[in-house]
From TrEMBL:
Source organism per UniProt: Gossypium lobatum
Name used for this protein in its record: Aconitate hydratase
InterPro entries assigned: AcnA_IRP_Swivel, Acnase/IPM_dHydase_lsu_aba_1/3, Acoase/IPM_deHydtase_lsu_aba, Aconitase/3IPM_dehydase_swvl, Aconitase/IRP2, Aconitase_4Fe-4S_dom, AconitaseA/IPMdHydase_ssu_swvl
SUPFAM superfamilies, per the entry: Aconitase iron-sulfur domain (SSF53732), LeuD/IlvD-like (SSF52016)
Gene3D superfamilies associated with the record: 6.10.190.10, Aconitase, domain 3, Aconitase, domain 4
Organism placement in taxonomy: Eukaryota, Viridiplantae, Streptophyta, Embryophyta, Tracheophyta
Amino acid sequence: MLPDMVAAAVLSGNRNFEGRVHPLTRANYLASPPLVVAYSLAGTVDIDFEKEPIGKGKDGKEIFFRDIWPSSEEVANVVQSSVLPDMFKATYQAITKGNPMWNELSVPSSNLYAWDSTSTYIHKPPYFKDMTMSPPGPHGVKDAYCLLNFGDSITTDHVSPAGSIHKDSPAAKFLLEHGVDRRDFNSYGSRRGNDEVMARGTFANIRLVNKLLEGEVGPKTIHIPTGEKLSVYDAAMRYNTAGQDTIILAGAEYGSGSSRDWAAKGPMMLGIKAVIAKSFEQIHRSNLVGMGIIPLCFKPGDDADTLGLTGHERYTINLPNSVSEIRPGQDVTVATETSKSFSCTVRFDTEVELAYFNHGGILQYVIRNLIGPKQ
C-alpha cells in the first residue's frame, strides 16, 4: 500500500470507524448487504452505479447495477418460500433443552461463581475491591497529570477495546505471558469478561490522535514526568504506581458514537479521574459518572487551545467535601501548578448521578442501597 493511499471498505452493520475491517483501512462506508456485494464486484467505491458498469459478463457485455438488483417481487418470493414458520417453531421449542455439549458441562454446586484464576477470558473484576458499606463521598482531583490530550470527535470506538488484539500491544504481551499463543489471541470482544485484557486494550485504537504526540497517530502517549513515549496502558500504570491522578483533555463531542460500557469502565481502570471536554455525548457522559469519573465542560468559547493548555500541566479540581454542597451544572475552578486557572461546568446533570458519584459509582451504589440492607 502506498503511504498516502486511503483504502476504503464497504460493510454491512452499524459501525464505520477507522480500522473496523482492517487496521490499515482509513475510510469505511455502511451499506446494505446487497450493496456490499455490488461494491465488491466493482472493486471501487468511486463509481456511479446509475451510469457506470460494475463489470463485464462472460459474453463481454457490460453489466450494470440495475441488471443484478432484485425487484421487490423477487425478494418477496424468496422470503415467502424460504423463511418458514416451522423454522422458528423448531428453534424456540428446543431453546430450553440446550444441546449435548451444553448439557454435559460440569456445573459447580455452590451459589457463588467459582473464579478460575488461570482464565484469560473471565476474571474477577476489581470494582468492589476494598469497598466498605459507607460511601466514600465526592472526591476532587489534585495535581493530576494529563494522560491524553484530544481534539474533537473522540468516539467510544477510539476508547473502547474493539477488534483484533495487535501483536505488539500490552494486551498481547499479557496473553503471551499467560501462555496464550498468538494464533489464539481472538478478539477484545471475546475477552470482554477479563478486565486485565480490556484495561490494556482501552485507548488501543491505531487511529488515536493524541496531541501530546505532536502529530504521530497511534495508541501511545507521553509520560509527562519523564518525557518517555509509552503505550497508554503502560503510562497509566506508571502514574498509578506513583500514586498520581490522571485526567483527559478533549474537544467537542467526546464519547460520540454507540454507547459502550467498556468506554467508561476502561478509563476508570486506567485510573483516570476526570475528563475535561468542550462537550460530551450524553449517554457516555452519564456512563463516566457511573464509573466515578468527573465530566467537566469548558465554558462556551473555551477549550484547551484557547486557554493555552498543552497537557504538560498538572491539574487540580476542587469539589465540595459534601455531596449536598454540589449542584447539577455547578461551576468549579480548575487550577494548574503554573498558576493558570479556568472555570468549568461539572456535568453531574441529575441528583441521581450525584448519588452515584457520592458512592464511587453506580455499581457501588447498587450494592450499598439494594443488596446491603437485605443481608
